[in-house]
Model the fold of this input.
Amino acid sequence: MRAGRGVVAVLLALCVLTGCERGSPSPPDRPDTIRFASYDFPENQTLVEVYAEAVRRRGLPVSVQHGIGTREVVSPALQQGVVDVVVDYLGTALAFARPQFPRPPEMPEQMHAVLTRTMGGRGVDVLAAADAEDQNGFAVTTDFAAAHDVHRLSDLTGLAGDLAFGGPPECPDRPFCLLGLEQVYGVRFGAVTSMPSRAATIEALLAGQIQVGMLETTDARLAIAPVVLLADDRGLQPRENVVPMVRSEVFDRWGEPLREALESTSARLTTADLVALNRAVELQGRTPAEAARAWWDRQ
Done:
């Protein structure tokens, strides 16, 4: 059933992206714009706008489709030529591209090399990764941490059966989310609740509806909410440097100006920048496009 729903989601998303109708032709091989697509969470939408703005400032035509879906939807769209540019995260992108890889490398340079070889065979170029990095994190309230002496993920092992967990809908099947917590830490929660957003996750934590929630390590709310990330003391999370991926054919048309715009963005972007961009969108009310333009104006 899950696989069937995934196929349907891909087909629906491709129709949304291409504007397909019954009997309509396939999308043109050489679209008039460089088509960026984002995943279905705010940080990635902001990152896509940052990279897209760099391309706009080089005078190249850009279109952006936000919130297309999860990796199961966006990655096939990139490989099938429905979209042209995706901004991903190194470790998760590699795990998705090579799910049966026997010994995935741990260093970013080695991870990048394997991802480059893998995606190159699928018509996708993997550009240089940024210093900016965002990993999955697992948070509890500061009161909960103090009351139960919980500071590391391994501290949850004896407690999890009595706790409720909240995270994104895809979390139970992700190797770096619930699936990984079970395999690496032996943690199995008594209840699991699907959260519509990271903001809802923090609200549920503070209301006591859940005791553990998944948040990104760059979530700007971590600086103001009474929650704390638990240390990943057994190294579940891989390195997750931001990395743009581009259809190889796109470079054939748009050339070095496109490559230079994307590479220069990665060369500038830091984790602190990523936190600040998230703060601008999540806490200050700017749109991803507004935050991206302001970031470039400061460069």
